Amino acid sequence: MTETKLHIIGGGLAGSEAAWQAANAGIQVILHEMRPVEKTEAHQTEGLAELVCSNSFRSDDYEFNAVGLLHEEMRRCNSLIMAAAEKAKVPAGSALAVDRHVFSDEVTAALEAHPNITIKREAIDGLPPSDWENVIIATGPLTHSGLAQAIIELTGEGQLAFFDAIAPIVDKDSINFDIAWFQSRYDKIGPGGNGKDYINCPMNREQYEAFINALIEGDKTEFKDWEKDTPYFEGCLPIEVMAERGLDTLRFGPMKPVGLIDPNTGKQAHAVVQLRQDNKLGTLYNIVGFQTKLKYGAQADVFRMIPGLEDAQFARLGGIHRNTFINSPRLLDESLRLKAQPRLRFAGQVTGCEGYVESASVGLIAGRFAAADMQGQSLSLPPVETALGALLNHITGGAESETFQPMNINFGLFPPIPPIITDNGKKKKVKGKDRKKAMSDKALAALEIWLAENDIDAKKQTA
Fold first, then answer.
1. Confidence band, pLDDT 50/70/90 cuts, at residue 43
2. Which of 57-66, 218-227, 234-243 shows the lowest mean pLDDT across its residues?
3. Residue with the larger pLDDT of the pair 192 and 183
4. Which residue of 27, 54, 372, 375 has the lowest C-beta tally within 10 Å?
5. Under a CB-based contact definition with an 8 Å cutoff, are residues 298 and 174 in contact?
6. How would you list the strands of the sheet with 117-121, edge to edge?
7. CATH assignment, 5-159+326-460
8. Do 22 and 59 meet the contact criterion of CB atoms below 8 Å apart?
């Protein structure tokens, strides 16, 4: 076992996962987390791996969904984040959602108890000291300004940034169930669910159009001068920004009514607002897709226009914060090391991956790469046929550096499935669900070979 320590900056999902993976490989890890010494614009606790936006890890269907496939690959790599999510899961249809407090507590407890991990509560406000020979920077969307500036100066790159918004959370007891009802879209059953995992609030055309007008006209947060040119990430647009794009934009987005039948009318509503369970007790629900930059007073007024939420009590109102990431395709090598200073690795959202599981998965890979390097071993890249490999390939060179933007895992990042040969000798493209299933099967088979070739046996690691 090497005596050299691995320093990980940032105790979010990526940093926590990186620490777990490296420590399980026998590396002594020092995990640096600035909270509560210094607070951020979005965090509310000092817990590790705190979820500041949604409580959903999205689809858990590993056969037909790229996100679910990434879940499964991480589970097979002994992921702490996925293990904690399993213990903290709440009903959410076919999605994997968690009680955010239980989840953070599970991660924090596991890392605090690990004999190879030391947690230091301190801010790193510049480049790590030169005698830190092995570093993973996993500071996420809220990187300390001093560290961010030091990275800019080191790389010679301008800082890329976008706004990320937080959805409000409602007290279940304040919801009017004479109007609202429980149902998952198409009654689909998911992890820990029963097909009735979402609270649905219906709108007719008149109510919907009045709501859209109120969203557009509501009092919104004013940006500071240095923030005004920051673009939004398309995968997490504020609800009012979507409303400004056209009257029906929300009806084909987070307020789509398809697959939901209002039991009071026996018909599909013009639009539907969905709420998803946010804690184990089932007392709190977040409004799905309703991240917002409306000011608090306007939020309460506008969201109480939603049928069923007339008397809603909000456990947390929405918010907005600036998210930052580096131009990874230009700056990082294929194992996430900074080309300008290879002792520094990057992981998580700061690399330009988007989403909880994507962030954690890059932390998983970074932790394994760092551990192998420190022990003088060779770790091959995860195959591009896997979700882990496809995402890594994208952020370290697969994407165009000139137009690089944050990316969720999706099957478009995977190598294409070759056409099949029909009985008459003709080529036929594999499409739809067959294509997704074929990609998932190929990914898991490739992952098992990669794990075996690199002598990775999750069963033998510290649980």
1. low
2. 218-227
3. 183
4. 375
5. no
6. 117-121, 28-33, 5-9, 135-137, 341-346, 337-338
7. 3.50.50.60
8. no
Distances in Å between the Cα of 456 and the Cα atoms of 4, 82, 219, 389 are: 22, 18, 53, 16
DSSP string, 325-390: E--HHHHB-TTSEETTEEEEEE-GGGGTB-SHHHHHHHHHHHHHHHHHHHTT---PPPPTTSHHHH
Task: Identify which of 352, 74, 330, 157 has the alpha carbon closest to the alpha carbon of residue 235.
Answer: 352
Query: For the chain, what are the domain ranges?
Result: 5-159+326-460, 165-322
User: Mapping DSSP to helix (H, G, I), strand (E, B) and coil, where does residue 117 land?
Assistant: strand
Peptide bond into 383 cis (omega under 30): no
Other C-beta atoms closer than 10 Å to the C-beta of 165 total 25
Cα angle 25, 37, 279 (rounded to 5 degrees) comes to: 70
Q: What is the pLDDT averaged over residues 306-325?
A: 86
Helix (H, G, I), strand (E, B) or coil at 22: helix
* Nearest 10 degrees: Cα torsion 126, 132, 134, 138: -30
What are 131's two structure tokens? 């005698």
Closest by CA position to 21, among listed 343, 279, 396, 370: 370
Q: What share of the chain is helix, strand, coil (3-state, %, to 5)?
A: 35, 20, 45
Nearest to 387, CA basis, from 408, 372, 405: 408
Q: Which amino acid is at 106?
A: E
Residue listed under structure tokens 């010494």: 37
DSSP state of 273: E
Tokens read off for 393: 């390939």
Report d(CA 303, CA 174) in Å as an integer.
Answer: 13
DSSP 8-state symbol, 316: E
Name the pTM for this structure: 0.79
- The token pair that represents 47 in the structure block: 């817990």
Backbone angles phi, psi at 242, to 5 degrees: -65, -40
Structure tokens that stand for 112 in this block: 């605090």
Write phi, then psi, for 206 (nearest 5 degrees): -60, -45
User: 165-322 in CATH: which number?
Assistant: 2.40.30.260
